[in-house]
Structure formats: C-alpha cells, structure tokens
Write a structure and sequence with these properties.
The chain is of the alpha/beta class and 252 residues long. The protein is built from eight helices and 15 strands.
Length: 252
C-alpha cells in the first residue's frame, strides 16, 4: 500500500477544521489527517510529537498567527499549505514566493491541485527560504523577491537584480545585472502581472519587460534601450513616449 502523506490541520475555527478534514478524506486519499489544532501552542506540540509531512495552516488566529508558528522550529521539516482570506496583493505574493495557499472558502479543485503539487515535491523543498521570501514580499505590500523554478530546484531572485525579461515562444529569459541569464518555462504575460509598473517594470515591446531602474539610455531613433551590463531591449514606437513619461515620473 502506498504511503499516505500525514497532515495536521491548524485553524482556530472548528467549522473550518471540519470542512477541510472532510474534503481531504473525500477528495484527497493520498492525505491522512493525524491531528487538528485550534491554535499555535497546540499545533507546535502536535508537530513535535507526530512529525507530519504537511501542515494546513491558517494565518489569522488569535494569540499567535500562522507565520509565528514557524518561529518555534529551528528546522522546518514539513511542507506548508496556508489557508487564508487574504487580499489580492497577498495572493500574488504567495504565487511569486512559490508557497501554496487555499483561499477561503476552500474550493475542492484548488485543494486537489495543491495536494497534487505537494505529492510531487521530492527532497529538499527549501520551505524555509520560500517562507522568508513570502514574508519579505508581504512586509511592505511590495514584491521584493521571486522564486524561479529550475530543473534541479529553485532560484531566489531579488527583483532589483533583474534588468529585463525577454520572451521566446512559451519561454522567458530573465536577465540579471551581473550578466547572468535564466531560462524559465513561463509566458512573459505571467511575469508582467507580477512585475508591473508598481514594481518599476514597463512592457516596452511584445517581447520585452524592462526594469526602468536599469535603463542607461533610450535611443532617439533606433527603438533600442541600453541597460546595465550592456544589455539591450527593444521599445515599440507606440510605447516610446509613454515609457519616457514613466521614467521621468519615477526618477524624481
């Protein structure tokens, strides 16, 4: 018989605990709920005693919140799926930090997707680093770091290090100010939603998304931008005046 992943549910609402436990029993046979806890002190005891594979963790709880639970562990040896009613920005922060979350009220398809992803994680999932990235992104309601999936793990990138992104079919090249380049199996539109104008990025061309902090020169006639580390990017004719205005407004 295949080994089931052992789970602990942490939520201060009894009804929320019951619903999640019922959904897991009915729709996620690969998960076995071994304990439930209504607050962080109870959860810490249960985790230390039972060593679960995954903790379904509510964020907003009286006393200690979900993030504070992690401060009780020097090493986090369990995966975490947060359950939250957070804002739209916070959900973006979860996505770029590669942390799974279930938005309340929990939907079955969302739950099964999160569990399916969980079962595919092998070896070191870098959960501590991903949580730290999430907390940094939530701190000032600004995206500071993104987690980029690689074939052999994950790369944590400070967005200030990104000069620009270039689309190539269904892939994106992420160019860094130190001259390195990373190829990611994602659409540039996905990154435009994350790295938008609020974060100082501008879509200059259908193939380019540029960090304006790294613009050194905008050519007056060739539709080309010179960036840090001698990188170049294209600017579409109909985007040029808008880009110039955006750069002026954000360089004050």
């Amino acid at each position: 018989m295949e080994h089931k992943l052992q789970a602990i549910i942490v939520d201060d609402e009894a009804k929320a605990r019951r619903i999640l436990e019922t959904f897991l029993a009915e729709f996620c046979p690969e998960i076995s709920v071994i304990a439930v806890a209504e607050d962080v002190p109870q959860a810490v005891k249960a985790i230390r005693k039972l060593n679960p594979d995954v903790v379904f963790l509510d964020i907003e709880m009286p006393g200690y919140n979900g993030f504070q639970l992690l401060e009780f562990f020097e090493e986090i040896q369990f995966e975490i799926i947060f359950t939250t009613a957070y804002s739209e920005f916070a959900l973006k922060a979860f996505q770029v930090s590669a942390i799974d979350y279930l938005l309340k009220p929990i939907q079955i398809d969302q739950l099964t997707k999160a569990v399916d992803k969980l079962t595919k994680i092998k070896g070191n999932s870098l959960i501590k680093e991903r949580i730290e990235t999430l907390q940094a992104n939530l701190e000032d309601n600004k995206i500071k770091k993104i987690v980029v999936p690689l074939s052999d793990g994950s790369l944590f990138i400070d967005i200030s290090e990104i000069t620009h992104l270039k689309a190539e079919g269904s892939y994106v090249h992420i160019f860094l100010k130190d001259g390195n380049k990373i190829l990611v199996s994602k659409n540039i539109k996905d990154y435009e939603e994350i790295l938008n104008r609020k974060e100082g990025f501008f879509r200059t061309h259908r193939s380019y998304l540029v960090n304006i902090k790294h613009i050194l020169n905008i050519s007056s006639d060739h539709g080309e931008i010179l960036l840090s580390h001698n990188h170049t990017a294209q600017v579409a004719r109909d985007k040029k005046s808008e880009l110039m205005q955006f750069v002026r407004e954000n360089s004050l």
